[in-house]
Amino acid sequence: MLPDTERATVAAAAAPTPATRIDHVSGRPWLVGRWPAGEFQFAEVGTTRLAVVGHCPVGGAELSQWVSRIRDVADVDAVAASLPGSFHLIASVRGRLRFQGSVSGLRRVFHALVDGVTVATDRGDVMARMTGAAVDRRRLAARLLVPNAPYPLADGALWQGVFAVPGDSYLCVSDTGAGEVVRWWEPPEPNLGLQSGASAVRVALETAVWGRAYTKPTLSCDLTGGIDSAAICYLAAGSGRQLAVLIATGDNGSPAVERAVRGLPHARRLAVSPGEVRPPYADVAVPGPTWDEPLTGIENRANMLAAARKLAAAGCQTHLTDSGASEVLQGGSAYLYDLALTRPLLALSHARGHRQAQRWSRRSVARIWTDRRDYGGWLVDTGRALTACPPEGDPAPAGWGSPFRLPTWATADAADAVRELIGEVAADVRPLARTRGQHDALWAVRQVAYRVRGLAGLVASADVAIAAPFLDDRVVEACLAVRPHERTSPGRDRALLVEAMRGVVPDAIVRRPVEPPASAPEPAAPDQRRSDLLALCEDSALARLGLVDTDQLRSACARLPESDPERVALSRTFGCERWLRDLAKADLGSAADAVEPSEAKE
Q1: Which of 28, 103, 212, 440 is paired with 446 by a 20 to 30 Å CA distance?
Q2: pTM for the whole thing?
Q3: Which of 254, 227, 313, 306 is CA-nearest to residue 520?
Q4: Does residue 515 fall inside a structural domain?
């Protein structure tokens, strides 16, 4: 998106080609890009214009009605809060521009100054290419954190001088090309009970799934036998479109999957055979498509691409995933602190349930209620322990989330870089919501949305589009409007979805306890995996940045760690390593240029 200025016209020359161009009334470029057929809608009333890019089952006439009510960019709030789907919203009103993604974070907006004017895109790497920006060393160091980087460390762009617009905000650009980020969205107050909330969730999820069928003749879905995937499959079957179900090796033939398939008699079955499964890190030595952040789950990249190619060969170009279900339906335990303030006895009962299920100690449970730090204080305090040994066992998370650590092979410089970034953002950081439970839920939603976004970027190379109905903004809002202690009851898994899907999903599936997905026997190729990982340790891009100790990293690769924290840490590290190498091959933000942290604040 470009402002209506002469300097922006020059900036447009740096945009990727080939592309479709839509001009301002003046004839200067406004929108330059590529979008799939059926995923661009445009309405114009007078000099007010509105573009919707993505999935949105709204016709041109209805969109024109919305445009007729807009007098200022702030009036677009009503449009953004009402339209279903997952999309970017771009408006031009009286010389001012507005550009926003989705609340969930699945659709993102990045901006930077190009020749003195604000230019925005939906991908950070495209923005970096236009500006010649180098990778931000501090933010990359934060991506090594395990289990995850906290908010807002993983929220920003990974390039110096390139900034990400938060999901709850929009970018406003004046007629002179000056940009400003404006927060427009607040999470709903969780005042609904389970029954009334379930009705709203059903309507929102049905609209989300059927909205994909609006322009797509064939849909595919994952099917594991659990209620999350079954909900998507059965709603998709009700859309009247052709349906294919993708069944992973570990689930194929299981009673739960067979039971679910029997209720979908017209769906094609696409099962992944054991011989099609590649071992972890099977293609880690192979360059991949570039994206604006490292791929989460780099060890499974070969299988992700193989599944996408299988779908494409079957004629399935839009795949519905149930990713995000756990985050919007279940949530973590941070709500216990909030619940104790209003209903202490109920909070104690819930804490007992969580303690039994997750083997928390009594002392760690007590810390949930005695920790009264604000978010910035918690962030700084936790950052001081970046290199400390993780506490033994599985203690209840205190404060605003789980503790985060750097892996043992991270350098002291990496720890200093992360602490410096924490110190910079902690002074004026604002949590995503007023309460700890809602903040925790929203950050979990954003994290899974970023993972799905990366997956979508990967499989686009196989001509398959990923859609995540659980991450549509209207679905997220419907789920978060339910009281956390009813949404996240330790004795009832997926209680909200169980109630929402009664009459849609067969009772035998609705009543079945949620189980972890089955896993296929891992193909044996440890020697090749070690060899490929050790090869990436040679002349490591991360080591050249001073972020990892290659001797320590080689030691971890040689033994192929089995514990979950170490496996996650290895995945994070090699995701970043592969990303840096692929950027260098694409001549974008090479590691050699990424030695100084950004001086700018977001």
Answers
A1: 212
A2: 0.94
A3: 254
A4: no
